[in-house]
Amino acid sequence: MTGTSPLAPPDVEEVRRDARAALDAVTTAARSLDDTDLAGPSALPGWSRSHVLAHVTAIGEAMARQAERAARGELVEVYDGGAVGREAGIQTGARRTVAEHAAALESLAERLDAAWPAPGSTGWDAPVTYRDGTVADALVAWWREARIHAVDLDAGIGLDTWPRLLGLHLLDFLGVRLTDDVVVEVAEEPARLRVGPGGLRLAAEPGASPHAETPVGSDPGFDAHDGVVVRGRLTDVAAWLAGRTPDAEPDTFRAGEPAPLPEIGPWPSPYSPPR
Cα separations (Å) of 265 from 1, 36, 42, 141, 149? Predict the structure, then answer.
């Protein structure tokens, strides 16, 4: 396996750096827009680019608040007013001008830099209300949102900006959208991956004996020949699971025969509909 194992959890400092890079890319893209671009449609149905920028700012501020309050030993809901407050904030933020969006994103970058714990700090393990997780989970959520919505902005940021670490994380996080497990084969990963409601695991090699020694995390009882195999680039498979349009649709086989991609269910989010 090249690089880290696909089963390894995301490295906090690598995630923090890439989340900042994603925010910087969104900020640069926002500055390049004019009023017509800003009001134009994004890649998200029903949302303008201004809505996407407002949401990026809002989710970043929400996760910064989770970290800030956790540092004081406090728990606070993700958004003031819950789902209703979230939606109201997006609609209000969508009325910003290009200059106001850029200023809000720049202010957010400073706030996040100050909010995240120092490298190696136990503060990363402090509890937050977001998914009943930790500050590290809040960071990963922000990273995921920033990278996905950077592409949704439809302003020149493509799937090629998604790092391998994000692709693997999305397979793990979004496997719950599938009804049944599938085997994923990607050229960048020598190992075959099993993705489904149980998350990301290694898949047994075809024809392996159920008594043969298999890697930790694999399931020798799952026979891909009787199930679904999805084959494509990591970013394309991740984009499909994220409900986004892949650059090239992955090839899919059921019991060895070409088949359509499986249906995916709702986004695993505390708030619906998914964005």
Answer: 30, 34, 22, 19, 19
Q: Going by DSSP bridges, is the β-strand pair 228-231/199-202 parallel, antiparallel, or unpaired?
A: unpaired
The sign of the CA dihedral 33, 36, 38, 41 is negative
Distances in Å between the Cα of 1 and the Cα atoms of 11, 98, 192, 205, 206 are 17, 44, 11, 14, 18
The whole-model pTM stands at 0.89
Percent of the chain exceeding pLDDT 90 equals 79
The count of other CB atoms within 10 Å of the CB of residue 218 is: 19
Q: How far apart are CA 80 and CA 61, in angstroms?
A: 11
Name residue 230's beta-bridge partners. Answer: 184, 252
Residue found by looking up tokens 């706030």 in the block? 111
**Gap between the Cα atoms of 198 and 53, Å rounded:** 32
Q: Judge whether residue 275 has pLDDT over 80.
A: no
pLDDT band at 226 (very low <50, low <70, confident <90, very high): low
* DSSP character at residue 157: -
Half-sphere exposure of 87 (CA within 13 A, CB side): 6
Q: Tell me the torsion sign for CA atoms 93, 97, 100, 105.
A: positive
Q: How confident is the model at residue 164 (pLDDT cuts 50, 70, 90)?
A: very high
Question: Identity (one letter) of the amino acid at 1?
Answer: M
Q: At what angle do helices 135-152 and 49-71 cross, to 10 degrees?
A: 170
